[in-house]
Amino acid sequence: MDQEHFIRTLSLDDRRPAPMGQAWALALAAAVLVAAGLFATILGPRPDIATAAETWRFLYKFLVTAVLFLTGLWALLALARPGARARLPLLLLAPALLLASVLVELVVAPAGELGSRLVGNNALLCLTFIPLIGAGPLAAFLLALRHGAPDAPARAGAVAGLVAGGLAATLYASHCTDDSPLFVATWYPLAVLLLAAVGALAGRRLARW
Amino acid sequence: MVGEGDEELARLLNAALSGDDQAYADFLRRAAGLVRRFAQRRITFGGLDPEDIVQETLLAVHLKRHTWRNDSPVGPWLYAIARFKLIDAFRRANRRLEVPVDGDFDAPAPEPEDRASEREIDRALATLPPREQSVVSAISVDGRSIAETAQALDMTEGAVRVALHRGLARIARTFGRM
Question: How far away is chain B from the Cα of A208, in angstroms, using its nearest Cα?
Fold first, then answer.
């Protein structure tokens, strides 16, 4: 098939793919609906959420998870386009915020309580439910990546996992009664990185084009 | 590659995306020229044909044209696609070049392929399901229009368009993987 025939063939195929903005809007809506629906069904917010919301430790969890979600999402949108610059260093913002809160906690918490605050009561719950709640969103983001053209599919899949983890952790944080930064900095990242690893493996296979 | 040439490319692609077929063909011709030079400079051994990279890249550009942001330069986007396809092709070529572990050494060398007449894309075309294959080859090899193809194959024009699109997407998925 020579070039002119080939080019003429391509220009005759006038079925327009959906714009990326539309694909992402759809993926985000599906991700939030599925994650929030699952969370409300199996966990739900903690009963004392009103009093918890008066403490900085509880509120700070949402700052970290929301920052992870938003910075990750921004990078993800760029990673779906060939040659676009994804601002990956921004992804360090959430870990930096987390580290800062750990340092504060080390100063203000009674020395005898550090160990028990780190281990907490819900480590296993955290490691189970963040990946579980994040699985649906991860699938939605991978489908949007597949519609796009990520030129680093594994990296894009890993960031999709971070974004799904940020969303799931935001929901889970409203259920969990372990608010110490020591707990959050130990268990949340493990759960989120699990999603990122699955995302990287799946991205390499699913987001090929 | 961000300059006057790029502005012209962006203008053509924008016109193409709003339905100007002539501008689209023009854009693809220019893109082919750029990708050809890009691939020729990087392919330094005989295992790969730059023309295969050109066609594979054009097909990807076509199927992924919605990933271009119309306020950004075309060059970085186009070359990122070409680079991705080139690396993919290198990877496949390396796999094919692996030395057999045992036996096989006395087997006769395969006939050198006639590269000019059979490209990866023609091989991919040959593996399409029958209906998609007849539609795509009527248009691409015989040079027929959508209407002529519909008449010759006793299909509606809508069905021809669907089969053409599906066939091209399937070719992109199987490109070079046979």
Answer: 9
